[in-house]
Specification:
alpha+beta; 18% helix; 152 residues; three-stranded antiparallel sheet
């Protein structure tokens, strides 16, 4: 009885944003439930070098490694919520530390959410990395402005 009461209390305490993130996470885990239009080809990331206190914004195409300091970041999936939904971008990242003096070490593998970077964060003594946005490689096609008549 105590367990079900505490589960109910925890579920009721979840904020709306946490519920949305949980729903997105479930959709990602099940695969293919997010509309295809929401899938992006490039992740926009920011990185903080804690030694120099410099923040860098960089783009990482899906399935192509990007470098930030000694980190090699590979974006496996990047999704952006459609315009009719609350704004959210999420990316599945694999981050490895590549140093010449030590073996390559996997530091992070999982989803990062732009609206809640602390939900799933990289833990590294020198670098922080977080998702800013997801965008397609080519801009969406726009309908021509003006009349679409065939004659002059």
């Amino acid at each position: 009885m105590e367990l079900s009461e505490s589960v109910k209390r925890c579920h009721g305490a979840l904020r709306p944003r946490a519920r949305r993130l949980a729903a997105w996470g479930l959709a990602f885990a099940l695969g293919g439930l997010v509309p295809a239009a929401a899938r992006a080809e490039t992740a926009v990331l920011q990185g903080l070098d804690k030694i120099t206190a410099r923040i860098s914004t960089f783009e990482a195409p899906v399935n192509e490694p990007a470098r930030f300091g000694s980190l090699e970041i590979t974006v496996r999936r990047c999704y952006k919520a459609p315009p009719e939904e609350p704004p959210e971008s999420a990316a599945f990242l694999e981050i490895v530390d590549v140093r010449p003096d030590s073996p390559t070490a996997l530091l992070f593998s999982g989803w990062m959410f732009a609206s809640s970077p602390a939900v799933s964060a990289l833990e590294h003594p020198v670098y922080d990395v977080w998702v800013i946005d997801c965008k397609p490689d080519s801009p969406p096609e726009q309908a021509p402005s003006g009349a679409t008549g065939t004659g002059n």
